[in-house]
Amino acid sequence: MQARSALFDLYGDYLRARGSRAPVSALVRLLAPLDIAAPAVRTAVSRMVRQGWLHPLRLATGPGYVLTPKAARRLDEAAARVYRTGRGGWDGRFDMILLHQPVARPDAARLTYLGYGSLSEQVWVAPRASDETEAALTEAGVGYERFSAAHTAGSVGANGIVARAWDLGRIGRSYEEFVESLQPVVKAVTPRSTDEEAYAARFRLVHAWRSIVFPDPQLPSALLPPGWPGVKAAAFFDKHAARLRTPADRHVDRTLRGARVGPSET
Fold first, then answer.
1. Predicted pLDDT at 86
2. Are residues 66 and 137 in the same domain?
C-alpha cells in the first residue's frame, strides 16, 4: 500500500468527518499499523501539497494539513462510489463522448475512473453522465462532442455495447479475488482483537475495495450477466465494513485526542 493512496483513504474515510484536518504526528501514527513508515508519510504529504490536495496549517500542537476544496469534492465523490450512495436507476441511455483526437494515457485513466468505457480511441460511453467529465476533458485540452444515446437498432444491442466497452470477465474476477483475499483479513478480527487491529483490517478492506470499484462502471443490473460476482462482493464489503467501523472509529478518535487536534493558531 503506497503512502499517498493511504492518505487519501485516511482523509476520505475518517478525517473528512472530523474536520478534514490532522497534525502530522497523527497522520504518521494512523498509517503505522499499515506498515507505512514516517518518512514515506511525510514525503507523500509534501507531494499532495504540491498537487493541490492538502493545505498546510498550524494546529495547536504544531504543523498539520487540511483538505483543499478540490480534494474534499473528489473524496466525497469517491465515498459515494465506495458506499454506493446517491445512485439512481438507469433510463436506458448512455452518455456518449466523441473525442476530436485520442487522449493521453493519464486522461484515458481519468475517463475510466469516471465510469466510461472505450468503444474506440475516440468514442467513450458510460451508463450515467459524470459531472466531472467536461472539466476532465477541458484540462486534457481535447475537443469533443457529447450525446445522450439509446441503442435502437443493430445486431448487438445494449449488452453488446457493454461487452465492447468493458471487460466484464476481468472485473468479475477482481470481485471474486477481493473476497478471497480479504476474507482471512477481516475474519481474523474477533471480539478479543484490539481497536487498532480492527482499524488496520478495516483500512485494508476499504483500500482494496476502492481499487475494485473505481475501474467498475457500476452498470445497472439489466446490463450485467446473471450471477454477477459484484453483488456478493458488495454484500461482503458492507457487512465487514460496518462490523469493524465502531472499533476503528475508536482508534482514530483516540489517536487524534492523543495528538490534541485543535483549531488553527494562524
1. 58
2. no
